[in-house]
Amino acid sequence: MTETTPRRRAPAMSTEDRKAMIVAAALPLVAEHGAAITTSQIARAAGIGEGTIFRVFTDKDEVLQACMAEAVNPDHALRELAAISLDEPLSDRLVQAVEALHAHLERMGTVAGALYASGHLRDRAPSGRPAPGAREASMRATQEAVAELIEPDRAALRLDPQKIAAIFLGMIFTQQRSMGEDSALTPADLVDVLLHGALHHPEADG
Questions:
Q1: Cα distance between residue 120 and residue 24, in whole Å
Q2: Is residue 66 a contact partner of residue 57, using CB atoms and an 8 Å limit?
Q3: Cα dist. 119→51, 115, 122 in Å?
Q4: What is the Cα–Cα distance from 6 to 9, expressed in whole angstroms?
Q5: What is the pTM of this model?
Q6: Number of C-beta neighbours around residue 175 at 10 A
Q7: Fold designation for 12-72
Q8: pLDDT tens for residues 156-190?
Q9: What are the domain boundaries of the chain?
Q10: Which fold has domain 73-206?
């Protein structure tokens, strides 16, 4: 008679991991439908029972707050920046950085816009806002990450990498807020202006 090996159970998912899984499933729904989504829709998207949501979140409003917090969280963009190879030319590194940051800003704007349009953010109490200093800390971390991408070319630059990173981020955020689709710079355009300015250089063109 052969003995059967007892089947091991998978380790239980922690509360924080389950929250993260639910938010990841909910984000695309929030971006599309705003606060009109239901916990039933979220549960189906996450492949869980609806009751599981209420074991880790108080109510749907708390899920929406978590989705907004995840949308503004820069960690994903920072991982994208850290993954850019320093062996590539500076211009290529910065084009990839623009693309990563544009994707982050677009996701943040889409989620916030959907929640605002459906009345959620308009009715938020101050407790729904980011913690004091969170935005500044996010900007510092992003600037540091961009400066690290620039650092290998320090000897060829007129300014310190930190200053160039600050200018670079200013260009990205200003463009994102103020330009329509018809006048928007491509990532390559933005990097070209940053590195070479807006003027023709006859000696280089000739």
A1: 19
A2: yes
A3: 25, 6, 5
A4: 9
A5: 0.79
A6: 17
A7: Arc Repressor Mutant, subunit A (1.10.10)
A8: 999 999 999 999 999 998 876 555 555 567 999 99
A9: 12-72, 73-206
A10: Tetracycline Repressor; domain 2 (1.10.357)
